[in-house]
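In line with agreed milestones, the collection of sequences with tokenised folds has grown. A representative record is reproduced below.
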Amino acid sequence: MPFSLPLALTVRLVPVVVLATAGWAMSAGPLADPPEAAASSEKSGSSGTSPDSGGEDGGTGKGAGEDEGSSGGSDEQEKTYEKAPDPCKAVSKKTVTSLVPGKLTTGELASTDKDVRRMCQWHALKGYSYRWLDVSYEIRRSNEDAQKAFDRVVADGKGGPFEGLGDEAYSLSAKTSDKGNKVQETELTVRSGNALVVVTYNGGDFVEKTTPSADKIRDGAAKAAGEALAAL
């Protein structure tokens, strides 16, 4: 069956669009603080109050009191990691080659603060079989803050727990179809201390209109997540 040049070019441009979308998600995605928390953070100024510490009592609760009192710094004591590692080096070349076969394109997204938030993306076409993998780190202010961010992801209720990774992990898998092109995807969110690791892995064949199995994609995401955690 002939495969038209415009469509072939469109397939190759998909990663560019996805990459731009992922860049936006780094600052406004599910791990970002909700608007009310962000506003609280701005109002706190130099006091160092955590955006999530005020709760419904307008910032007069435990978090604000401890930051200002002599017993402050408890959040700092619960901070397991200080900075994010290089995500493009976190996953081994062997693993990347097995998960993303073909002519590989790799790149790290720009970040306003690499100590806090970093993401690397790999994509490749082998024939018309496509694979995309990205790995991101987000280092939160404290373990408790990371827990709250993780809970917001879990709250969607569309996925389920994933055993054996970090302190806790959540997996969401889905198969999507656009104009007959099918993609199987897993998004795996893992919390370890105050670090959140998010791995997204997907693939499909744009000629055969088939996808890898859900288990294969999920296992691939878990493999990458395990190596990303080890790099923390």
User: Anything to note?
Assistant: The radius of gyration is 20 Å. The first strand starts at residue 103 and ends at 108. The beta strands are 103-108, 117-126, 129-139, 160-161, 168-178, 181-192, 195-205.
